[in-house]
Design a protein that fits this description.
Length: about 400
């Protein structure tokens, strides 16, 4: 067989995808598996968004879309950025992409030369580092320890930036920890970035509306306007509006960067589904009370999961400010053996044994750049969470 591209040598299939596949294999054997591995809302897409897509299809809006996004969706995105973030992007400073992931990929492909560095706070979403590698970049991870709430310390960021740094990538509320930065914390990060004008700044704000206990979300170009001309603000409708399958992401940023990303998108996918864009515009412009109601439900789930995990022997779980994940520490479970005879030497061992013996799917922290932790998504029903927590407690109680 002809050889594959060498660029794939260091790129792995997402650990959350792998764990999801293993969970489905067990389920296919008739085993009741509770998967807490996927970062996908369990709520339905808002009805008015579905209706908008239906109307668009019936009206014949099924042809090739404009490569950078329909005028209607771009206008809705502009209103969203102004309403939620105080950012006023012109139409040619906005790009619609196939999910937020493509916005990040476009940006890396349009800007990274071989050896350019991308600074990524860890723990981090699995795909960030691999996308940087595919584009020829070098991921440089910066540890955000639990004793700092899994948040980026300005002095650690300053130490990581070099003359080869091309991007600093921020994701707060964070996947996998749920950590979010206050305005003061974000301003401290911005002060570091202001000292390095050769660095682009990317912020993945996909979880902006999933914050709890009165926490106020902020994004870096909003906090520090002097960074606006080198900041790419990435977002989408997947998490906020439970529209993961619609694949609609978007971003706002400097005109020249958006133009370069537009060019890159043209070589990959061109435009984005027309009916999906109609649905996204309806979601962004429609009533937002549903978003607040769902955030309240996520908060109740978070509180329950944190409390129950902290009852499990060997698990210590930090309570995050946002998103729909927790990132509990399992250090006290290492070096032990399960009832089924599996030796737990790492968080990967823990996640695999938990799936095989207790039939609960989680993802090992190593996949996100920090051990010994596991990521648990609570974007599922309370009924499922109650049973999952019971199984986890029983599994941990059986470790010897």
């Amino acid at each position: 067989m002809p050889a594959l591209a060498s660029r794939l040598a260091e790129v792995k299939v997402s650990a959350s995808v792998v764990m999801g596949m293993k969970a489905r294999e067990l389920a296919a054997k008739g085993i009741r598996v509770i998967s807490l591995a996927a970062g996908e809302p369990d709520f339905p897409t808002p009805p008015h968004a579905i209706e908008a897509a239906h109307r668009a299809a019936l009206a014949g809006d099924t042809k090739y879309p404009p490569q950078g996004g329909t005028p209607a969706l771009k206008a809705a995105i502009r209103r969203k950025f102004l309403r939620d973030n105080g950012l006023d992007y012109a139409e040619d400073e906005i790009l619609v992409t196939n999910g937020g992931k493509q916005a990040i990929f476009n940006a890396f492909m349009a800007t990274l030369d071989p050896g350019d560095e991308v600074v990524i706070p860890a723990p981090y979403w699995i795909s960030y580092a691999d996308m940087a590698k595919v584009a020829g970049g070098v991921p440089v991870t910066v540890s955000c320890p639990q004793n700092n709430g899994f948040k980026l310390r300005p002095e650690d960021l300053a130490a990581a930036i070099t003359p080869r740094t091309k991007w600093v990538l921020l994701n707060f509320p964070n996947n996998p920890t749920g950590a979010a930065c206050s305005r003061a914390e974000m301003q401290a990060i911005a002060e570091v970035l202001l000292r390095h004008p050769h660095v682009w700044v990317m912020t993945d704000d996909m979880y902006e509306h999933l914050v709890y206990d009165g926490f106020e979300f902020c994004t870096i170009a909003q906090v520090e306007p002097r960074l606006r001309d080198r900041t790419l603000t990435v977002n989408g409708v997947s998490k906020t509006y439970a529209m993961t399958g619609w694949r609609i992401g978007f971003c706002g940023g400097p005109r020249d960067l958006i133009k370069a990303m537009f060019n890159m998108q043209g070589q990959a996918t061109s435009g984005v589904s027309t009916v999906g864009q109609a649905a996204a515009a309806a979601a962004l412009d429609g009533p937002q009370d549903l978003v607040r109601a769902r955030a309240a439900e996520y908060r109740a789930r978070r509180d329950f999961v944190v409390e129950e995990l902290n009852k499990a022997p060997g698990i210590a779980c930090h309570k995050p400010e946002g998103a729909f994940y927790v990132f509990p520490n399992i250090a006290a479970c290492l070096g032990k053996t399960t009832r089924g005879g599996a030796r737990i030497e790492s968080d990967s061992d823990f996640a695999l044994a938990l799936l095989e013996e207790a039939h609960v799917g989680v993802v090992q922290g190593a996949a996100y750049g920090m051990s010994p932790y596991i990521r648990i998504s609570y974007a599922t029903s309370m009924e499922e969470l109650r049973e999952a927590m019971r199984r986890i407690q029983e599994f941990c109680a059986g470790l010897r």
